[in-house]
Design brief:
Strand content of chain A: under 5%
Family (chain B): Belongs to the small Tim family.
Number of domains of chain B: 1
Radius of gyration of chain B: 20 Å
Strand content of chain B: under 5%
Membrane topology (chain B): Peripheral membrane protein
Distance between the termini of chain B: 41 Å
Shape of chain B: flat
Shape of chain A: flat
GO cellular component, one term (chain B): mitochondrial intermembrane space chaperone complex
CATH superfamily of chain B: Mitochondrial import inner membrane translocase subunit tim13 like domains
Helix content of chain B: over 70%
Subunit structure (chain B): Heterohexamer; composed of 3 copies of TIM8 and 3 copies of TIM13, named soluble 70 kDa complex. Associates with the TIM22 complex, whose core is composed of TIM22.
Protein name (chain B): Mitochondrial import inner membrane translocase subunit
Order of helices and strands of chain A: HH
Order of helices and strands of chain B: HHH
Oligomer: heterodimer
Helix content of chain A: over 70%
Distance between the termini of chain A: 49 Å
CATH topology of chain B: Helix Hairpins
CATH class of chain B: Mainly Alpha
Chain lengths: 78, 90
């Protein structure tokens, strides 16, 4: 491939789009792994119990709350 | 760019069009994502289902693995939905 193609706006757009997708994927994968360990304590059943699914969703929301708190905490230290 | 040029389609020249390159990039990325996800699921389900490895995979272990894979995929959906709805609120 011609190296000047790297300046192609279509390719640039794809790269930026993929960068964002990679970041989102990584975040989802990391949180799913952490919340799975916290919420799914027994052997996986054929259906999530309501407490398991609400634990998973709470887990993700609390992680977001926590990261905001951490940002604020660091900001107040400056 | 080796990984991308190897399977280029037909044409006699080794030059690849940007479109072909982008298509291959998408395929390779999708494969990489799938591979990484499978690796995570393998780890999680091995921990959950193969607690005492025997001389062969038992029926109980097999069905645990199927359920575990399904639940992990479902959990990924729940987490991404929660993240998405949380970021909408802010």
């Amino acid at each position: 491939m011609d190296p000047s193609a790297l300046n192609n706006p279509q390719l640039q757009q794809l790269i930026n789009q993929e960068k964002e997708r990679a970041m989102a994927n990584e975040m989802i994968a990391k949180l799913t792994s952490a919340c799975w360990d916290k919420c799914i304590t027994g052997t996986p059943g054929s259906k999530f119990s309501s407490s398991e699914s609400s634990c998973l969703s709470n887990c993700a929301h609390r992680y977001m709350d926590m990261s905001m708190m951490i940002v604020k905490r660091f900001q107040s230290m400056q | 760019m080796d990984a991308f040029s190897s399977s280029s389609s037909s044409s006699s020249s080794s030059q690849m069009s940007t479109e072909d390159f982008m298509d291959q990039l998408k395929v390779q990325l999708a494969q990489a994502y799938a591979e990484e996800f499978m690796e995570t699921v393998r780890g999680k389900c091995f921990d959950k289902c193969i607690t005492k490895p025997g001389s062969s995979l038992s029926g109980g272990e097999g069905s645990c693995i199927s359920r575990c894979v399904d639940r992990y995929v479902e959990a990924t959906g729940i987490i991404s939905k929660s993240l998405f709805s949380a970021s909408m609120k802010n």
